[in-house]
Each structure stands twice: as C-alpha cells, then as structure tokens.
Design brief:
Helices cover 54% and strands 8% of the residues. Helix 2 packs antiparallel against helix 5 and helix 7 packs across helix 8. The chain has a 6-stranded antiparallel beta sheet with strand order 1-6-2-3-4-5. It has 9 helices and 6 strands. The radius of gyration is 33 Å and the shape is elongated. The protein has 2 domains: 141 residues, Helix Hairpins (Orthogonal Bundle), CATH 1.10.287; 120 residues, endopeptidase domain like (from Nostoc punctiforme) (endopeptidase fold (from Nostoc punctiforme), Alpha-Beta Complex). By secondary structure, it is α+β, with helices and mostly antiparallel strands. The two termini are 50 Å apart.
Amino acid sequence: MGSHRSLAPSGRRRAPAGFDRGAAALCALSAAAAALGGAPAHAAPRTDARAEVDRLYTEAERATQAYDRAEERTDALRREVRYAQDRVARRQQDVNALREELGSLAGAQYRSGGVDPAVELLFSDDPDEYLDRASTLDRIDAQEAGRLRRLRSALRELDQERAEAATKLAALERGRRAVAAHKRTVEGKLARARQLLNSLPAADRVAYGRSSRSAGPGRLDLPALTGAPGVRAAMALAAVRSALGRPYVWGANGPTGFDCSGLMQWAYAHAGIQLPRTSQEQRFAGRQVPLSEARPGDLVVYRSDASHVAMYVGHGQVIHAPYPGAAVRYDPVGMMPVSSVTRP
C-alpha cells in the first residue's frame, strides 16, 4: 500500500517533538509487517508470516512433485539413451565386419590381376550407388552382390539408430534442464520459507512445527471397519510405521529421508508393489474408494491438484512426510482437503 507522506531523509536527526517511544515501536512493527510480505501496519505480522510459510511450503511441494516427475522421466531417458548407444555400437561393428570382408575381396582381386570395377565402387561415399549400377556390370558375382546388399542394409540401420539416439539425447538434455529448473524453484521457495520461519519467535516456530499447515476439517470420525488389511497392505503399513521420525527430504524416496510420494513408493515397494513416483500418478495406481470406506494401507491424496499423499492407518489417522523440517509422523486424515482415496 502506498503512502502519500514524504519520507524524511536518512541520517542522524533529533526526533521531532511528540515522537515518543510508543510511536517508534509502532513504526518498527509496520516495518516488520512490510518485511514479512507487504502486510499493512494493522495486520498481525506473525499470522501473516505463518500464512506465507504455509503458502511457500505448498508451492514447494507442488514443485517437488514436478521435480520427481521430471527426474523419473530423465532416468528412463538415460536408460533409453544407453540402450540406443549400445545398438549403434553393435550396428557399427556389423558395418565394419562387412567392410573388412569386402576389403579382403578387393585385395584378393588386386593380387590376381587388378581390382574388379565393381569392387572399386565399394570405396565410393555412397554404397547405394554400387547397387544401383551393379546391374550394368558384367563382372559382379552373387557373393559380391549379397555382401554389398548386407552392407547397404547395415548402413541404413546404422543411420536410423544414430538418428534415434540423437533424438533421445536431445530429449534427455531437455529433461535435465527441466529437472534443474524445478530444483531451483523448490530450493528458492524453501529458502524463503526458512527465512520467514527464522524471523518468528522461538515459541511460534515450535508451535508451527506442531500444527498442521493446511486448513481442513481436522479429525474425521470414519466408521469402524471390520477385518484386517490385506497381506500387501499390512506389509506397506509396517514399512511406513518403521519410517516414523525420519526427516522430510524433498525429492527423496528413502530409506533415510522422504518426500510425501517417495514415502508411499518406498513403503509399498516393501510389499512388492511398485507405485509411480508422484502423488498425481499414485492417485490412479489402484481402485479409488470413498473416504468413508478407507482402510489401513489406502493412499489418501490431498488438494485438488493431488500434490500431497499420505497413508491411512486407521482410527482417523494417516502417516505422511509433511514438509521440510518435519519428520514422518501421524496426523488426522482431515488435516487438509482430501481429493481421493486409492487402494493399491
């Protein structure tokens, strides 16, 4: 909000008459509020700071899921590039072997009285030219023609393999740039959030760490369900409980640290189920059920953009990796808006 008053020039000056300590404190409070996000002087700076931290953590979590997705795709492209390069190398070996055979043939013909005109064409830049003109030559035999056809085929396949490898390499480079961009976004938002948290009094920082970040209905009284979870769900539950207390680490999927979707992927890997990497993909990694029918082991996905995920453990509770600076912990299933429940 702009001010219509002229600011006094900087420097040491005597306070004007009537400017008491209370006015000085009010000015300091206004400056602090502005530093915490441009809030007007009448806003509560601590509340504004905590709300801004919530917003930054939420945005960082969305960027983390984008980072996870880009990293997963980049890893897949790396494997494809290695495979493509292996194919190119094998195809090059085939071409070299065929050229060596034909070179030996040319040497033998030279020693026996000169190089066959057909073999001379072998050393042109375009082997297709040989085959296109071979029908006009009366000294080519079936063996020579067969070898050169194989060479032409091998060269064409080599060119195709090289083109595919180049395309995958270009995609890999784009993926690397996307990963780097998402990483910068996450790190920037987390740095701003830490700066704001550090500006709060110690008691407020502790209180923030104990509270849930996002507004939601809080504890939901879900109906009691009969029967134990399935074997695989029970194994995933045991794994996620074993992770309690381990730190949130963005972009990590265990075993020493986790982001929200990385924890779910890691837990279900212990049950022999390979979940996708991101919360958006995990949302569709099974059968969706109503929240009222949630069973232990189900994945609870939050927000309309599915940017957070937790595991339902029963009695209205979930286990999840909340945000940087917090450990894997229990929270009420209604800690933030639920968008879906998935049973892997």
